[in-house]
Every structure is written in C-alpha cells, then in structure tokens.
Design a protein that fits this description.
binds nicotinamide-adenine-dinucleotide; six-stranded parallel sheet; Rossmann fold; alpha/beta; single chain; globular
C-alpha cells in the first residue's frame, strides 16, 4: 500500500481524532466520522476540545492540506475508503458487562456505505472473543463480500497520545489474513517499531492483558502502601527499591488514590466479565479492582479520623481529572472521592485546570473554583487528588493562612512534605507512615 491510502476513521474521540490526524500527517487521505454532529462541526471549524499536546496543530495542518476532513453522515465520503479504522467507545456496564452497540453501529455504517472498503480495523479496545462475534455478524449480513478484519489495539497514554501514536512501543495486528495485517501495519510507515502479527484472539488479549497488568501494578503498590501506613515504612522508597530490579521496573508503582480514566477500570471489568462468561471468576483481576475501589474509602477514613468525623466539614479537592495534563474526567478517582465525601455530608470545594470541561455532576455537587488559592478558603482539609504540576508549586504558607483547619492529604505523594510542615500544617500521604501526621 502506498503513502496515499484512502482511510476512514469512525469515532472522533481521543483515539479516533489522534489516529486520524497522525494517519493524515503520514500522507493518507483521511475522512473522520462521528455521530456527534456538534463535535464534527467544531472540528470542521478547527476547534479541538481534547487536551493533548500537539493535537490542535496536527489537525489544523492536515485540514489545511486537504488530507483530513470531518463528517457527521456516514454516506458522505465513507464510500471511498479502502480501510476503515473503528475507534468508537466500547463501554462496560458494571452490571451487564461490555456494551458493543456503538461498535456494531459503526460496522453497520461500513456495511451500508463502504463500497470500496476491504479492510476493517478494530482500533477500539474490545473484550476477548469480540472479533469472532463481529465476523459472524458481518458474514450473516454480507456473506458475498470479502472484508478482512484486523485487530489493531491502541496503546497510547493520554497526555502524550500524539507522540505515542507516532512512535508506539509496538504495533500489534491480529487477523486471519496475514496480508491484511501487514497492510495495516504498513500504513504507519515506521518499520523500526517492533511489529507482531497474530491471530485476532491473541491481539485482543495482548491489549486486555497489558491494561490488566498496569492496573495490577497500581493496586499492588496501593496495598503495600496500606501496610506502610500501619508500619511506618515509606512506600516511595519501597517502590524505588523494588523498581531498581529490572524484572519489576519503577513505572506504575506510584501509590495514591488509585487508577481511573476511560481504559483501565472499564477494560478490567470487561475482562472479568469475559472470564465469568467462560465459567470462572478470575481472583487476581477481581482483587485488583477491589483494592482500587477501596482506595477512595482509605482516603475518606484518613480524613474522618483526623477531622473527628466528616459530616459538616469543608474539604478542598485539588484536581478532578483522572490524571494530570488531560481534560478527561471519565472514571476519575478524584471525582469518585469528591462524590463519596459529599454523600457523607462533606461540603466539597474543588478546582482543576481543565474545569471548563468538567462534567455536569461536578457542577451540581461541588463548588468549583478556577483559582486553587480561592478554593482553599475556610476549609478544614485540602486533598491533592490529581498530580497537576501547578499544585506542586503552591505556597503552603499562604494556603495555611486561608484554611480554617490544618490538614493536607496528599493523594498522589507528590507534595513537598517539609514545606507543608514548615507552614504549620499536618501532612498525610499514601503509605508515607514515617512523615504522615
Ligand atoms: N482514551 C484512551 O486513552 C484509549 C487508549 C487506548 C484505547 N482506547 C479505546 O479506544 C476506544 C475509543 O476510546 P476514546 O477514549 O477515543 O472514546 P471517546 O468516547 O473519546 O470517543 C468515541 C467517539 O465515538 C463516537 N461514536 C460512537 N458510536 C459511533 C458510531 N456508531 N458512529 C460514529 N461515531 C460513533 C462518539 O460520539 C465519540 O465521539 C475505546 O474502545 C477505548 O477503550 C482508548
């Protein structure tokens, strides 16, 4: 396949927009579709709502060059695409499990309008066995037409999605057709990147197992942090000491309020649900989820014991996105903590650099402030919930003067303990038993 393939990307969210812009930047002609017509109209007018370094510039450059277009209706432009990337959301309902309706809807659009389409790329994260179901559905509707399916999971991290998409750690392409798999890998024109061509079930599992393993590292270190809280050990030094072992590695061993975002919790739930549907409950995965769900309760208890009860107290939460440098609030532990405390009768004041994109529930339940200094006025405690760098540079002497209480809970173990203590404030970290008050 040359450098000028005609590609359609269905879904203009985090994965779809980044993939569409990166593919267009390579030289492909990319039509990007989304059922959200407001999103399409904003993108057509050059407005990128997703906070990712380099993304607005990449979108503008390729729109100007005529290689990247946005569409709300599938019949407009989809007909020319040889290859279609499916990048729609694949949510997991905590009770009913994976919800593939958006994926099936996108596939219907391809079957209805993709006259030239020969390859369907599953870029969305799907539970194990999805490709087999999708293939059967397509064969039932489309028996006469050959359509290769390639499972091609996206591994980028939000906050560095463009850089990761352009230079990924690996390219995984799973298909019954090796030729189709290699055609999709070739679209990226980065022969240096390790590439694995597998069957579809294996490609699905590489993505699911990778996310489950990252989640397991976080829950593992959080469980160790609880033991450190009780014994006076310092979890950051424990993680450093562990991480120096190359078999373990330092990344994802950061103790705190737990993992969130649109991927790890939902993919873990999907994998648990898949295992259950195959006949057993996966104990390790269930424990990873349980430890994570309980992290919110651990922080709430730290506040409860030190404030002498929660009801009627005022708490400032610094950071509401699921991690810094993104405007993504989906499944954010900071949001869950705020809502949990609010239900326990705490008055929540909150701030975040991406507040303009905060979900309605945050507006309804919390008093929101763009300025952290205003957010902390009159509060009994401050909780650092998302490790935005701006909160690591706060003047704690000024903060202390504005608060009515003296408690600082560091939910990410990133604050400067001595500055906080010099300001006459009490400090509590996650598994920092030796320095926590
Ligand atoms: N966000 C991440 O960091 C990340 C990383 C790797 C993989 N993934 C996976 O990629 C997939 C997409 O994630 P996301 O974060 O981009 O989701 P998102 O919610 O940001 O975007 C999905 C988009 O698809 C659109 N859509 C839904 N159904 C459609 C249809 N039938 N036709 C056209 N458009 C449709 C929605 O309107 C939305 O704009 C998910 O499976 C996710 O698990 C996400």
């Amino acid at each position: 396949m040359g450098s000028n393939s005609s590609i359609a990307v269905i879904g203009a969210g985090y994965v779809g927009l980044v993939n569409a812009a990166c593919l267009a930047d390579i030289g492909h002609s990319v039509a990007c579709f989304d059922t959200d017509s407001k999103k399409v109209s904003r993108l057509t007018n050059g407005i990128v709502d997703i906070l990712e370094p380099g993304l607005p510039e990449l979108v503008a450059k390729n729109q100007d060059a005529g290689r990247l277009t946005f569409h709300a209706a599938a019949d407009e432009g989809l007909g020319h695409a040889e290859t279609v990337f499916l990048c729609v959301d694949t949510p997991t309902d905590p009770v009913t499990g994976p919800d593939l309706r958006n994926l099936m809807g996108a596939i219907d659009s391809v079957l209805d309008h993709g006259e030239s389409t020969s390859t369907l790329v599953l870029r969305s994260t799907v539970p194990p066995g999805t490709t087999a179901i999708v293939s059967e559905n397509i064969a039932a509707r489309n028996g006469h037409r050959a359509l290769d399916i390639v499972v091609h999971p996206e591994f980028f991290q939000e906050g560095q999605a463009v850089a990761d998409c352009q230079a990924p750690s690996r390219v995984v392409v799973g298909s019954d057709s090796e030729a189709a798999a290699l055609r999709v890998a070739d679209l990226w024109q980065n022969p240096e990147t390790p590439c694995m061509a597998t069957d579809t079930a294996t490609a699905e599992m590489i993505k699911q197992a990778s996310n489950a393993f990252l989640a397991a590292k976080i829950s593992f270190i959080n469980e160790m942090a609880r033991i450190c809280d009780a014994t006076g050990a310092d979890i950051d030094l424990v993680a450093k000491g562990m991480g120096l072992d190359p078999r373990i590695g330092r990344r994802y061993l950061q103790a705190g309020i737990g993992f969130g975002g649109s991927c790890l919790p939902k993919d873990l739930r999907a994998l648990i649900s898949s295992a259950r549907s195959l006949g057993w409950s996966p104990p390790a995965l269930e424990a990873v989820l349980k430890v994570n769900d309980d992290q919110i309760l651990v922080i709430a208890e730290k506040l409860d014991t030190r404030l002498g009860g929660l009801r009627g107290k005022k708490v400032a939460i610094l950071g509401l996105t699921f991690k810094p440098d993104t405007a993504d609030f989906r499944d954010s532990p900071a949001m869950s903590l705020g809502l949990h405390l609010s239900r326990a009768g705490v008055e929540i004041r909150a701030t975040d650099p991406a507040l303009d994109q905060a979900p309605q529930v945050a507006k309804n339940e919390f008093e929101l402030f763009t300025d952290p200094e205003k957010c902390v006025v009159g509060v009994d405690a401050v909780v650092l919930a998302t490790a935005w760098s701006a909160y690591q540079d706060l003047n704690w002497a000024d903060i202390g003067r504005s608060m009515s209480g003296d408690l600082v809970v560091d939910g990410r173990n990133v604050l400067n303990v001595s500055e906080i203590k010099s300001a006459g404030l009490r400090y509590v970290g996650a598994g920092r038993g030796s320095v926590s008050d």
